[in-house]
């Protein structure tokens, strides 16, 4: 079973990552029978990799909570597990799904496939005046983790229209190891919030979650 890992990252929050090696039927076998709403939703997803990601993320929710993985979305875009008290954050990328569950507050997690695309679009999310600590030998990994961090913080904040370049600023960090931590600041309505993050990297993905 391609559950890569499951971690209790704090007293209230745990995360898990699934490597998607199964075909759709196998993933369906790992879930309770889908209800009509989920069947209809799955029918609307025509792109096969996206269908597998959707199913894998629901397998994670089911295994982590033990409840039927029906999800809904608040007006701000944050997902929630129907008829379950824990909060959830969901992410997926090429061949992987990641979920964070917390009993205290909305968590934040993001997983991304390493790609030159991240460097190409860095101008959209990197603050050129404040995030100036990139090193040539670490730049690709730093940019990947900065992108993941800002996505995870965005999911936590639940504020549509958040400007990544100006409202989420990462402090200097140098990911020479595959696991570590760093910090960021979130600016909302003239209030500054300190955010603590953890990361885990492989050749296939960058993963960042909030503590």
From TrEMBL:
Keyword Chloroplast listed: no
Where's the 4'-phosphopantetheinyl transferase domain?
Answer: 108-162
InterPro entries in UniProt: 4-PPantetheinyl_Trfase_dom, 4-PPantetheinyl_Trfase_dom_sf
Record's keyword annotation contains Lipid metabolism:
no
Q: Which GO terms describe its molecular function?
A: holo-[acyl-carrier-protein] synthase activity; magnesium ion binding
Question: Cross-referenced Pfam families, in alphabetical order?
Answer: ACPS (PF01648)
Which keywords does this Swiss-Prot/TrEMBL entry list?
A: Transferase
Protein name per its UniProtKB record: 4-phosphopantetheinyl transferase
């Amino acid at each position: 079973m391609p559950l890569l890992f499951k971690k209790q990252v704090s007293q209230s929050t745990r995360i898990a990552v699934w490597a998607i090696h199964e075909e759709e039927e196998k993933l369906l076998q790992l879930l309770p029978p889908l209800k009509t709403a989920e069947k209809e939703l799955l029918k609307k997803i025509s792109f096969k990799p996206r269908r597998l990601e959707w199913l894998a993320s629901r397998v994670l929710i089911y295994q982590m909570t033990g409840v039927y993985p029906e999800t809904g979305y608040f007006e701000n875009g944050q997902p929630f597990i129907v008829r379950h008290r824990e909060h959830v954050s969901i992410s997926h990328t090429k061949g992987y799904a990641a979920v964070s569950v917390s009993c205290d507050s909305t968590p934040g997690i993001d997983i991304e496939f390493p790609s030159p695309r991240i460097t190409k679009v860095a101008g959209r999310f990197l603050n050129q005046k404040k995030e100036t600590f990139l090193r040539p030998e670490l730049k690709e990994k730093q940019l990947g983790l900065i992108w993941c961090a800002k996505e995870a913080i965005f999911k936590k904040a639940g504020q549509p229209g958040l400007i990544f370049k100006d409202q989420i600023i990462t402090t200097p960090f140098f990911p020479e190891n595959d696991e570590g931590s760093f910090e960021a600041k979130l600016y909302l309505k003239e209030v500054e919030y300190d955010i603590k993050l953890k990361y885990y990297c492989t050749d296939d993905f960058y993963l960042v979650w909030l503590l």
